[in-house]
Amino acid sequence: MKAIILFGHGARDARWREPFDRLAQLWQEQHPSTPVQLAFLELMQPSLEEAVTTLAAKGATDLTIVPVFFGQGGHLRNDFPVLLEECRGKFPNMTLSATPAVGEDLAVLQAIVDFGARAL
């Protein structure tokens, strides 16, 4: 079974995760047959490993991790690959792949331009 993990940075302020919760809810409403789980790099739960564990328990075997970051900063270039490899080692029977940061996608950038244009 395929599943998706929306991977964010995390923050001390619990309200910071509200858009991520809405994003996961939108995903589940629009793709009910594909489970979604949030995961965070730091300061919030669940961690990437905890999210993979949860989805594995639900029968997922093919996970796509979507970094909900604006760009490829140090966390995505340095920290995320280590976490991903650790999960691959702990879950050898699962396929774990990752997309580029969402902010690198032209459609996402265009959505931000459109948002700004509607604000004018």
TrEMBL record:
InterPro entries for the chain: CbiX-like, Sirohydro_Cobaltochel/CbiX
Classify the source by domain of life.
Bacteria
Q: Name one GO molecular function term.
A: metal ion binding
Print the keywords alphabetically: Lyase, Metal-binding
Name of the protein: Cobalamin biosynthesis protein CbiX
Please name the source species: Polynucleobacter arcticus
